[in-house]
Specification:
single chain; 216 residues; mainly alpha; 70% helix
Length: 216
């Protein structure tokens, strides 16, 4: 008796959309968006091109923005760390997740999150900037600051930008130094930036003093 073929299971709308986004993210993670076609996405997902258009009638631009939002959500969660334990340890764990994301997406990290693509728009720029702002808010919450002044806010946002830039340079330098050394350097850089700002800003000075007392 010939064994019957496994029953075909129709994916739900959300499952199919997730499948297409996963395929697109996999491609965008290794190639610039302008180098990825809808045919490529369809082939990677094992579906037809018209099916891709059914879920993303706006074509590649809509698909790219949806993939970018998905990646942005993952990055936002990187900084979602419980407020427990020493602050350097919390930052280290957040950076471990962030750098793991960078490693996963490797050469496509720039295309996914840094722009510079022909498909970049004000919407994609806003998505990326939203990740940076969310990360800064997470850091300020770990500092227990609810009303940061301009210098402290600028310091935190500058550090977030430095983490992003260092990650891109690290990829370009063949992931040297080792990832744990990069992480520790970035954590130390954060506290060094706070120290410099404290020389010019009373709020940051009080914050640094409080952190020193807590460590003591």
């Amino acid at each position: 008796m010939t064994p019957s073929a496994p029953a075909y299971r129709r994916l739900s709308v959300e499952e199919r959309r997730s499948q297409l986004l996963e395929a697109a993210l996999s491609l965008f993670a290794h190639r610039a968006p302008e180098e990825v076609s809808l045919d490529d996405v369809a082939e990677a997902a094992g579906v037809s091109r018209p099916l891709v258009y059914r879920y993303f009638p706006g074509g590649k631009q809509q698909l790219y923005e949806a993939a970018l939002r998905s990646a942005a959500d993952d990055l936002r969660h990187c900084f979602d760390e419980p407020h427990e334990g020493p602050l350097p340890d919390r930052l280290s764990r957040a950076l471990d997740r962030y750098l793991a994301f960078v490693v996963q997406h490797d050469a496509g990290f720039s295309a996914l999150l840094q722009g510079g693509s022909v498909v970049e728009t004000s919407r994609t720029t806003a998505i990326v900037d939203g990740v940076r702002r969310a990360a800064a808010e997470h850091i300020l919450s770990h500092l227990r600051v609810t009303d940061p002044g301009p210098r402290l806010r600028m310091t935190v946002r500058t550090w977030i930008t430095a983490v992003e830039a260092a990650s891109l340079i690290w990829i370009d330098e063949d992931k040297q130094p080792a990832v744990d050394e990069l992480r520790d350097w970035l954590v130390e850089q954060f506290f060094a930036m706070l120290m410099v700002t404290a020389r010019r800003d009373a709020q940051t000075e009080a914050l640094v003093a409080g952190l020193a007392a807590a460590d003591g």
